[in-house]
Amino acid sequence: MSGTDLETTPYAALAFAVLAASTSAILVRWSHAPSSVAAFYRVVFTTAIVAPIALVWYRDEFGRLSRSDLAFAVVAGVALAVHFAAWFESLNYTSVAASVTLVQTQPIFVALGAVLVLGERVSRTTVFGIVVAIIGAAAMSLGDSGQAPLADATMYGNALALLGAVTVAGYVLAGRSIRQRVSLFPYVTVVYTACAATLFVLVGAQGHDYVAYPTSEWLLFLAMAIGPGVFGHTVINWVLKHLESVVVSVAWLGEPLGATLLALVLLEELPDAITVAGGLVVLVGIYVTTIERERTSG
User: Fold this and answer.
1) What is the pLDDT of residues 243-262, one digit of tens each?
2) Does 280 score more than 50 pLDDT?
3) Which residue from 213, 268, 289 is spatially nearest to 95, judged by alpha carbons?
4) How confident is the model at residue 5 (pLDDT cuts 50, 70, 90)?
5) What confidence tens digit (pLDDT) does each residue in 96-131 have?
């Protein structure tokens, strides 16, 4: 593989992961199980896929995990659990476009955390790219004409989506720090295990049944794990070792565009011209931020 191929691979993987993640909202909408239950089994099945790989090929690395890295991985897992629980529930109160767009305001929090916690430098051009992408995402929501336009969505649903944004920002920042020292599969195994344990407690606290669901629901849980779980979040964790957290987070803003297009086809949530224009602005923000990263790192 040439040097150019090695440089291109993280960006190709990032694009693939964003596409896979775009299917998440659709799968959640199709499920009739409680939100916390769907989130729990998504993570359980994802863990069942990645843990055997970690235990067979990376067993020795678990013993070399420092206490601080282990603690941060657990914190990342808890943050991811809160993200899933809040975001899945928000989809019960607003449209796919609105919910996914609100949760993708997380680059604001990632950029702040990258400066304050990780010491990363964020240039003015990167900030400009983030602002452009956020404006585009906001336009998508304002133009949303789906089942529950943003203007009519409850404050509860909006707050849940924003809580999902804050917690996933913490998850991204923790991953960026730890992934410089820990291999992908040991890291995600610890994170997903902590996430699943947190969601298990939440399901019980809410009084939901753990197993009484039809076959169709179990297939949806498995699809959530394989698609947005393995090909989405797990690939993102691999990318975090090779690209800055701000770049990854802004690229994640492509998810509202992908989810909106899928909602159009699969849920018949028809976006209007403002929504389409907003999606194009999001892509401009992603492009500006990615190009700036290439300039400053080169």
Assistant:
1) 876 778 777 778 888 888 89
2) yes
3) 268
4) very low
5) 877 887 787 777 777 777 777 767 777 888 888 888
- Residue showing tokens 């797990």: 234
Q: Is the separation of the CB atoms in 97 and 259 below 8 Å?
A: yes
Contact 107, 248 (CB under 8 A): no
Yes or no: say if 208 and 34 are a contact pair by the CB < 8 Å rule: yes
